Structures are given as C-alpha cells and as structure tokens.
Amino acid sequence: MTAVEQPETPLGHGNMRRKEDARFIRGRGTYVDDVTLPGMLHGAVLRSPYAHARIVSIDTSAAQAHPKVRAVITGETLAGLNLAWMPTLSHDVQAVLATDKVRFQGQEVAFVVAEDRYSARDALELIDVDYEALPPVIDARQALAEDAPVIRDDLEGRTDNHIFDWESGDAAATDDVFASAEVVAAQDMLYPRVHPAPLETCGAVADMDAVTGKLTVWTTTQAPHAHRTIYALVAGLPEHKIRIISPDIGGGFGNKVGIYPGYVCAVVGSIVTGKPVKWVEDRSENLMSTSFARDYHMHGEIAATKDGRILGLRVNVLADHGAFNGTAQPTKFPAGFFGVFTGSYDLEAAHCSVTGVYTNKAPGGVAYACSFRITEAVYLVERLVDVLAFDLGMDPAELRMKNLLRPEQFPYRSKTGWEYDSGDYPTALRAALDLADYPALRAEQALKRERGEQMGIGVAFFTEAVGAGPRKHMDILGLGMADGAELRVHPTGKAVLRLSCQTQGQGHETTFAQIVGEELGISPDDIDVVHGDTDQTPFGLGTYGSRSTPVSGAAAAVVARKVRERARIVASAMLEVSADDLEWEKGRWFVRGDVEAGRTIQEIALAAHSDLELPEGVEGHLDATCVYNPPNLTYPFGAYVCVVDVDADTGQVTVRRFVAVDDCGVRINPMIVEGQVHGGLADGVGMALMQVMAFDEDGNHLGGSFMDYLLPTSMECPSWELGETVTPSPHHPIGAKGIGESATVGSPAAVVNAVVDALRPFGVRHADMPLTPAAVWSAAQGTPLRTDLAIT
Amino acid sequence: MIMEVTVTVNGHAYTRTIEPRLLLTHFLRDELGLTGTHWGCDTSNCGTCVVWLDDVPVKSCTVLAVMADGRQVRTVEGLEGADGLDPVQQGFVACHGLQCGFCTPGMLMTARWLIDHNPAPSEGDIREAISGQLCRCTGYENIVRSVRWAAEHEAGVREHTVEEAGTEVQA
C-alpha cells in the first residue's frame, strides 16, 4: 500500500480529483441518518393502506400506552395547530396528516414519536384506524369521466378532478400546416410514472430549542433556503429562527426538492416533546409517497413533406398529477418546460395543450433529472421523428440531419417562444454517428436480419433548457429563481466561497473552487466551498433542473471577478500606480508594460488587511457578494446512438453499445461532467427497459420496493462511449451550460428507438416504456401492453 | 427479551446488550456509531449495507446482530491501514468512482473482497461482483475502472516488490 502520486491541481478548470472524496471513501460522510443528538427521539409514520377512503375514526390509545412512546400525532392534533394542511410548490395544498380522507395508498395518517426507531414502528401497529373505502381514480384517462369520484372534495366548490389546462404555441397556424402537409404521422405514447429513487431515502432531524426558539432541521433537501422560507410559511415560525442544514445528500435527482409531511411531523414532534426527533423513511415509503416523476399520456402528431422536411408538431397531453398538485416548477409553467417540445428542429408551426388531472396516487410529477418536463418533451419529439422515419421509409439519422437547426440560426427563437442561446447540432450528430460507425452498424443489422436476428440502432438528438430563471419569468411560490454567492479572501490568500445551491453528489466542493480558482489564480485546494446551511450561506433557490452551474456557477465567477476588481484597487495602492494602468494575468496584477512590477493575489490579500493606505472611499479586505439573476436559460444539447440486441422469443433486450456526444459549453471539470453523463445514461436505460410504478385497479402500488421497482445494475449497463463538442453559452460568464440532467433527458428515446428499430421486421412502429421482456414480446406479437396499469 | 453479544468489528471487540431483532446494520450504526455502513432498501437489493462477516461480504440489513456474536466484522472504517488508504479507496478517488458517496462503502467492501480472491479481475468479473449493489450516480462505468485501477495498482506493487526482492538476492 504505497501512496499514490497525486496529480497536480489545476489552477482553475480542468480534470481534478474531488475534494469531497476523502471523507466518503473512509465512510465519514455525514448523511441525515448519521446525525445523532443527545436525547434524540425517533419518529415513524402510519400510512394509508387504501388509495381512497374516508377516515371514520382513529384510536391511538394503545399506542399512547406503549412504554417507549412519547407522543402520537394525528391530523386532529395538527388541525389544532393549524398545521394539518401545507402549501405545495404548485399553489395547491397537501395534507400533512389526513383528517377527512386518504387520497393515495401510502398517505400519511399518524406520526409516532418513541425512544428508538424499532419502538416507533411497533407503536404504529397499535393505532386503530377505521376506514370507509371509496372507489378510487387510478387510470388518468378516466379521471375526467362524468361519473369519476371527486378526489379533492376538501377544496370548496370542486366537482371534478380537473387541475389545469395549459397551452403553448400557435394552434391556428399549426392546424394550417397540418391541413396542407403531404404527410402526417400520429402516435399515442406514455411516459410512465417513475421514481428517482436516490439510494439515501428522505429524512429529517428536527431540533426545536424551547429556550431560544430556534428550530434547526438537518434534512435531505436540494433547496435549503427555499425550505426555510416554506417552513416559516407553513408553521408560522419566524424565518430568522429557522436553520436548515442539508449535510451530505445521498443522491437527489429531484426527489429532495419538496417538503414532505414526515419533515413537518418531525418538527411538530420536536415541539411537542421538547427533544430532537429523527424521522427517516424506509424504501417503500420513499417509493410510494414521495415525488414521483413523469406520468404523461401524450398524443403527438408530426407534419412533413414527402421527402422528409418536418413542418409542424401538434401535441395533446393528459398529465397525471396524483392526489395533490405538488409538482415543483416555476409558477408560470404548470407543465414545466414541456413547451420546449419542438426540440432541435426547424419548424413552421407547433402547438401543445396539457391538461392536468387528480388521481388517487402520490403527488409530485417534476422530479428525476427531468429539467422541468423536458424529458417528456424530448422523448415525445424524438419518438415522433422516428415514427415519421418509419412511415417515410427513411433512415432516422438522415431525417434528423435534414431537419436539425443550423449553426447560423442561433440565437434561435423557437415556435413556442424559447430563445436557444447557442448550438452546432449537425456537428454533434455527425460526431456521434462517426463514433458509433453508423454505416457499419446498419450493415451489420442487415446481415443479422437475414439470419433472423434482431438488432436495433436508435438515434436521438436533444436540446435542453436549464438554469432557471430569469427571476422575472420564473419563481417558485413567489421566490424568484436567482442565487447568491459570497466570497471571502483571508489575509493569507486562502478563500471561502459560500453558495445557495446544494450538492447531492455533483462535486460542488471541487468544481466551484475551480471556478473561483480560474478567475483569481488561487489554487482550488486553497478555496473551501460552504453550502447546505442556511445560517452560513446566502439565499438562493437551490440545486435542481441542472441549475447549479448555469446560476450558482455564474454567481461564483461574478463574485470572484468582483474580488479581482477590489484586488486591482489594492494593488494600485501597493504599486503606487493608477488602477487603469494594471493588467491581470492569472493570479496577479502587474503594471502594463512592466511585467515584473506586479503583486500576486496572495500579496494583495495580505495588504488588503494591513495598514496600507487605500484610496479615499475604498474599503479594506477583498470580500464580495453577488446575486446572479440569469438573463436566459442555457441550452445544452447532444446526440446519442444506442445499439441493442433483442431476443424476440423471450423479449429480452441487451444494450450492447451506447454512444453519447454531449455539448454543455465550457467544461469546468471534464472528469465530473463525464461522470454525470454516465449516471444519466444508466437512468435512461433503466426508464426505457425496467422502471415503472404501475397500479392495480384498487390503487395498490405495484412498485413499492426494489424487488418490484427495478433499477439498472452493472449488468444492464454497457460501457458508455462518450464524445463531446464545445459550444460556449454566450450569456454565461464562463460559457458553461448545465449537464446534470442531459443524459437522463436524452437517453430514453435513444434506447426505445433502438428497441423499436430491432422490432421492425415485426412491423412494430411504437411500444411504450418500460420495454420489459413481456412488453417487447407482446409488441412483437402485435398486442402492445399498457404498461402503467395492471387492470385487465 | 435482550441478549448480550460480543462482536469484533475492525479488530475491536464490542460487547453490547441488544434486542435479538436488531439488524447488524443498525447495530453498527446506532450502537457503535460506525455510520460508514449505510442502509438503503430493506430488501437486500441496494447493497449500501455490505460489510464482511468472517471475511465474506454480506448485506448487513438482512443479518441480525446476534448472528454476528463471536464473529468478525469488517466495515469501510476498517479499510484504511497504518500505511495509508487501501488501494480500492485510492482507485475510487483516482477514477471518479463515486459521486454522492452513499453506495461507496458497500462497493469498496465488495471490491476489496473481489481483488483478494481474483487479483486480475476482468471487466465482466467486476460487473458481476458488484451486480448485487446499486449505484444511482455513476452508471457503474467509473466504479468498474476504479476496481480495475486498484487491481492493477496492487499487481504493480507486487511486481515491484518481487523485483526489489530479486535485486536483494543478487546483491
């Protein structure tokens, strides 16, 4: 066991080993369940076995009598505190603990606080709830039927399960394009309900100090500051007396954006008992009750000329939002960023309409690395392009190349109003096809088809729109989507960067130090990144929708440049020259024309804290703050090629190769970018082939454990083949775009396109995810499965 | 009912009085404060709880702590030795084999066992060895590379040691 040579740390951008790894490889991370406080009690949630039922009575007396139980909390208890309902992120309300009805299987009904976690679970068994079962609404396509049971009768005047209608684009112009088009292809497709399933489930340790009135909550959150404000709104607690600490997070992927009833119960438990209370959900609770993703029932049409020029898109979506409208997206976007569904193509007109409905399923909808529904949008358009290629008998890669936006069209304003910042799409697609050796793959496929073997090649191209705001267009619960950064430079030139965003594995402690290092010429090793603690960091909306680099990354660069300008003034005083006569090279200011006459940032930092006389009106120190309000989203893009082998007799799909060319603008740490892409590709394979949360007719969740909700292992994943192009964002301070969700957004369509391509000899034009062996086999037989229901 | 058990973890004997239903993972985490071993699924699918029980990797969420009475347990906290990090730990850093870090302790314990029993594992060997464990961040690619890095590094050290020994003999 000899020491390994440590590669030199780059003075800014470049491959660099992660600073956070040192604790994780030793088992010394601090996740929420690792937090133990003196006198800490443990909470557990009693959940509904029914999808839809009226609560007749709840008897907690036996649980209260359990020797180790300290408190039993019900909806009635919370109603007394005006906490039985809480606001959702979509201006609806959600029951913290049910008072009138339960509306999905797994809904929170009661909360037990006990001396240890096993006793808390034991006591749940002692609570006697009398339910009167009601007919549930399980199939979203039946939610608006006239005789459908009304789920949200808690809302005054509510007589149906309709939530919203939303549309985007020009309906009349689109209809005109379709009316005169030579070719129209249409396809129904389902993006099934899935779950992000980070390996760490959600949880909280709440500690209310009765003397100081300070509430500290260690919790699994991707957005600590937003959570603090929401706790203030929910509980009526003064915001300055709330501290949210998001320690190490074991994966988020959107699962840890919202506030869950368990967190609120832990807070109430601590208030009631006067002790810290830990609540950590188990895996079934995580899968059954926390933020699901997708559940979009889509009908898409694509209009084109006979020779394959795409003219228009027309889309209708039925969106299953579950029992409470709890989707996490900017207020003006009830369907998230689905409006970017025109994708990467130059069209004449496009229109979509989305209708949201309540069903007796868990709330959520925007989660799982979806960039606010762009996953659904990309899947839709990329499947439609393949369906069109099928109908026209054209090669799908060639059809895409013919219709991709051209570099000279950027900045490009889409037919639904999105301004794409930069792109060179044909180069990316060519790079992917070259890397895959596409002609050779098609030749191999032809040979195999002659032998009766099913091999498929799937191509997908995607455009993402990530990094919300700008704040004037984008807010969550009225909180504008901008993020702060604070940079302190100590006298010896070491620095501390404080951020509002929150890593869940993305490596912020490394990459954000590199951003500052690049701007100031301070080694990233000498820059600590502080995040995940509202008492220690400036306000901001947090990490989701691939917004850390586009927003907080920009904030880090801007704040570092402010420090650099302060350093310039100090250097001018040190060198006794005008600040205008100074030039910057990485790490030092020097006198123009006299490179030797300069001062390093470290020397300047020391001087800034010294007795050096500074110009009139100039403060000492170098510290700076900023709030970054992005002028636009960034638009990363990419081209993917997937190769599968399908056993048509068993329906088994093997992903043999996956080529991914991603363009996320300037890469701060290429090693970390590639790691993010790898993870997203595995997600895509999982969603395309394995993952689904289906329900039976009674509303029983059929994916409530990892025995049933299948995630890809090392055996289902191929060795990923990556390529890159670099098209900087023109409006981002360092030209970077978000990357965290690109591969999750782009890859499912590539996998499904490949499987459908493999099934071409069977005349298959489309089949819904997940393409399990049963689904593939059925599709090949001409009897495709409805994958989201077990209703016969 | 409570029982007294003595479990040797990373070379230290711990005696505790516990309920017989206590899971080994909770024993390690809550009784001993060794929180490097995680818990993630209840159903033995995720493998974040993998530790060695008498030199065999097990999922400690499906082993009762009383079953470890009188036996040896090795956890991620026992990987680093007096002479530094274990090569598998170094490999995961060198090859970016972790992101959120939650699966990492279990992956490291399996990787260590694999290389002990198969010093030159193929990509297929590595994939099979970790196939009972989930990672949601890395798509497994860099975990495979990390384990291979560790195996190759150890092979290099062995070769180097043999060469040195040979030189000494000649001298």
Automatic annotation (TrEMBL), chain A:
Its cofactor is Mo-molybdopterin cytosine dinucleotide. GO terms for molecular function: anaerobic carbon-monoxide dehydrogenase activity; copper ion binding; iron ion binding; molybdenum ion binding. It holds the Pfam family Ald_Xan_dh_C. Residues 26-135 form the Aldehyde oxidase/xanthine dehydrogenase a/b hammerhead domain. Transmembrane segments: none annotated. The keyword Transmembrane helix does not apply. The keyword Mitochondrion does not apply. It comes from the Bacteria. InterPro entries: Ald_Oxase/Xan_DH_a/b (IPR000674), Ald_Oxase/Xan_DH_a/b_sf (IPR036856), Ald_Oxase/xanthine_DH-like (IPR016208), AldOxase/xan_DH_MoCoBD1 (IPR008274), AldOxase/xan_DH_MoCoBD2 (IPR046867), AldOxase/xan_DH_Mopterin-bd_sf (IPR037165), CO_Mo_DH_lsu (IPR012780). It is an enzyme of class 1 (oxidoreductase). Signal peptide: none annotated. Keywords: Molybdenum, Oxidoreductase. This is Carbon-monoxide dehydrogenase large subunit. It comes from Prauserella cavernicola. The lineage of its organism: Bacteria, Bacillati, Actinomycetota, Actinomycetes, Pseudonocardiales.
